[in-house]
Design a protein that fits this description.
Length: 85
């Protein structure tokens, strides 16, 4: 992952379909449960749960270092930033 670029996160559905979303923001970080919320530009809020603490820390570090996409910077069309308010 490159710094200052938007992050894309894949997510597996219950039917083994992989969806991808551009991360606008993260919230609700729970180190005890290894889960957090991701607001995506395309699909709204996703709940993400990691299998190990190392995966949790690594994924959050990458997402926190990524630059939010242009739509998430607070304009009238900003879905991601408004989802977590």
């Amino acid at each position: 992952m490159f710094r200052n670029t938007p992050a894309r996160v894949p997510k597996n559905s219950n039917h083994d379909v992989v969806h991808a979303g551009t991360v606008a923001a993260t919230s609700g970080e729970s180190k005890m449960k290894l889960e957090f919320l991701v607001a995506t530009v395309e699909a709204g809020l996703w709940s993400i749960r990691c299998h190990t603490r190392a995966d949790y820390d690594r994924l959050l570090n990458v997402l926190h270092a990524a630059k939010p996409p242009p739509l998430a910077k607070g304009g009238s069309s900003s879905r991601g930033s408004k989802l977590l308010r």
